[in-house]
Amino acid sequence: MNGAVRRLARSALSSLAFPSAQACPGSAPGVITSLRALSAARSVSPDECYDVVIVGGGMVGAAVAALLGGNRMTQQMRVAVLDVKPQPLSFTPAPVPGLRVSTITPGSIGVLKAAGAWEEVEALSAPFVDMQVWDAAAPGHIRWSARDLGEERMGVVAENPLLQASLLRAAQRSGGRTEFLWPAELRGLRLPDEQGRPHPGCSHGLAELDLADGRTLVARLVVAADGSASRVRQMAGLRTWGWGYGQRGVVATVSTAEPHVTAFQRFLPTGPLALLPVRGGLSSIVWSTTPEAAAALEALGPREFAAAVNKALLDPPASAASGFAPVSSLAEALGRMVGAGAGGGGGGWREPPRAVELVGSSPKSFPLQLKQAGRFVLPRLALVGDAAHAVHPLAGQGVNLGLGDAGALAEALRGAVAGGSDPGDARLLGEAYEAPRRRAVLAMTAAMDGVKRAFAVQAPPFAAVRGLGLGLINAVGPVRNGIMNYAMMGNT
Amino acid sequence: MALRPSRPVQPATRRLRAPAPPPPGPILAPLRRFLASPSTAASPAAGASVDPREAAKFGALAASWWSPSGPFAPLHALNPARVRFVRESLAACRGGDAGAPEPLKGLRVLDVGCGGGVLSESLARLGASVTGIDVAAASVAVAAAHAGGDPLVAGRVSYRCISAEDLAASGTGGFDAVIASEVLEHVRRPHDFLAVLASLLAPPEASPGAAVIISTINRTPAAWAFAIAGAEYVARVVPPGTHSFKKFVTPQELAIMADASGLKLWHASGMAPLGPGGAWALTGALDVNYIATLRRAGEVQAGGAEGPGAGPGAEAGAGAGAERQ
């Protein structure tokens, strides 16, 4: 009987060796059943195990580490952050802000505060209090103000290296058990199977990571924060889906005739162009366009580039000359009507400041894409940030989604500790992390994709309808603010 | 101290021998099936051998204790809620810090009816040194094997295939907390069973604040609808009539049984799948599943003045008083 029971149990946990586990013998009711793993695989002591190994010390990986270290329930967790290269723990602002900037929403500010990184970010970033979106092919605009939402600001524009260094520093000083392991290159990954059964090469049910220097780390949870080309995701066999947009985003920094606190975004026939306030009274340009136009823009001189920006932002709507003006006038009239009914409202048009010239690094461009992993979690694995989803940067939402991931994952792990759960438990990760994040990411990608595609249609009648839509949305306060809440995340 | 029951307490489940399909339904169904599973659940003292066919059936079920989508999935869903209650309640009993990552550090905890070790492992992660006991050998084997998956857990739990009364009779005891989760409604003489659990606590001088924690199901129309009609007639988890509504235990009855065992029902909380996304949460309503802490009468002021709401448990809804019922 004992043999039979043991075989059954063994088949149930096929690869987990438990040679000394005793089925209860009928004649000796007190025998303690215990397990001593004696398989050929290396046995592991509790002290060797990490609770969480974060692969990738970028903004999102750093945020996960800082959040875990900053919360009383999770700060006893042993956390390692790996990266192939040493990552900077301090940020020295250059005279001109770098090209890699992010628009940080109130939801993300909440994450930065919880992580203990907000003060540092706030000191070196630029706030914006208004946001204005309009069309190049039809009249009408939408304007949101932080005032309407009862907020002090609508967000800040921060350089990515500032965000990363602030979060890494916060992780370091949090009082948690965070180790930075870099340079450390991941060579191999062993995870339990989908049912949570141990990997055949492990003497335990945890995850193992092989590093290029010969070390092997044992972890209850592996967090893949290694970007859109995630090695961890590939090693885990998770696939992605998505598409490119056949477009490139050009980023540059410009000086303007006067400083401003509005995030401007205009939808051009070739894609949206954003003018965002950055540190030092300067502005960041994020211009999505065709590859040809992107190449041409990158080749322009400092003043020519500024002239191109001004033309794109300030030229009157194309439809004014297209013969569809009556439709547009109707739209405006409708908009006024609804606006009158709604009371209060979106605020008037504000002319963007004129760009004067390029400053700092010369413009660079990158391809726009949408990519998502089919699954964000497996037993003992969670994907965060671009490793889980790369959203083309139409509204600078990539980092916000990633910080949202970090917040949700840290909260899930806090719940795991409170409830005595295994932090690598796939059920817990699926319910407390993947499900809410997948909803957020799908909604965001669909919205971004939809806006992008809607504005990509340039036939004049469509453009007129679009103008109608913007006029109406701007006039109807609750709708507008609902959209804004959505765009700002964390308020939905 | 050793309160021996006049008759050994048996799992009240030997009645059911017919195998049932894996139950998708309510939380108690898998446990019932587990307890109902026949000869592997034989009393160790009886030395019954296992019919290989039955063993195979039970082996298949035992193997699914930890399957994320298996018949015990509802138990995994319930588990965090009852663990949070234990965290809050034991901290309140002992004047500890419920917000600490490992609030049970240094405590010896007995998990009676541990099954595959779902609760035992969680208690170990909260810092406790856990002994899990169960009368089903296959379940104990699975529990031991699974604990070996994590060295931290393996170092903090041990499992034994033995009944509570045999454990008490063997002179083992001295636990800071004795927990019987979803077991009471299945035993034949719950009064005696509770007395056995009380006898397994460490003496007051060695462990002030020692407690017995019971989770079970109330005898109310709602409980009937959820656990009997739902499980037996709608989900057809077990043959109709197998489980008797009569055996469900009301909080008042639990309080009376506690009194007879020298314990006082100190505080209680409902458990229901009412949290975000259908997660199980601690609630103030004790009308279906509930969990209660019983303390030594001598350590609790008369009249229950120290009861509900006395500790941090109240914040998590753990302070819902049984008296309200």
TrEMBL record, chain A:
Domain of life: Eukaryota
Record's keyword annotation contains Flavoprotein: yes
Cofactor(s) in the UniProt record: FAD
GO biological process terms, semicolon-separated: carotene biosynthetic process; xanthophyll biosynthetic process
Pathway: Cofactor biosynthesis; ubiquinone biosynthesis
NCBIfam families according to UniProt: Ubi-OHases
Summary of subunit composition and partner proteins: Component of a multi-subunit COQ enzyme complex.
Protein name: Ubiquinone biosynthesis monooxygenase COQ6, mitochondrial
Organism from which the protein derives: Edaphochlamys debaryana
From TrEMBL, chain B:
GO molecular function: 3-demethylubiquinol 3-O-methyltransferase activity; metal ion binding; polyprenyldihydroxybenzoate methyltransferase activity
Names of required cofactors: Mg(2+)
Reactions catalysed, as given in the entry: a 3,4-dihydroxy-5-(all-trans-polyprenyl)benzoate + S-adenosyl-L-methionine = a 4-hydroxy-3-methoxy-5-(all-trans-polyprenyl)benzoate + S-adenosyl-L-homocysteine + H(+); a 3-demethylubiquinol + S-adenosyl-L-methionine = a ubiquinol + S-adenosyl-L-homocysteine + H(+); a 3-demethylubiquinone + S-adenosyl-L-methionine = a ubiquinone + S-adenosyl-L-homocysteine
Example GO BP: methylation
UniProt keyword list: Magnesium, Membrane, Metal-binding, Methyltransferase, Mitochondrion, Mitochondrion inner membrane, S-adenosyl-L-methionine, Transferase, Ubiquinone biosynthesis
Any one GO cellular component localisation term in the record: extrinsic component of mitochondrial inner membrane
Alphabetical list of CDD domains matching this protein: AdoMet_MTases
Sequence segments annotated as region (Disordered): 1-29, 302-325
Similarity field: Belongs to the class I-like SAM-binding methyltransferase superfamily. UbiG/COQ3 family.
Protein name: Ubiquinone biosynthesis O-methyltransferase, mitochondrial
Originating species: Edaphochlamys debaryana
Taxonomic lineage of the native organism: Eukaryota, Viridiplantae, Chlorophyta, core chlorophytes, Chlorophyceae
This protein's encoding gene: COQ3
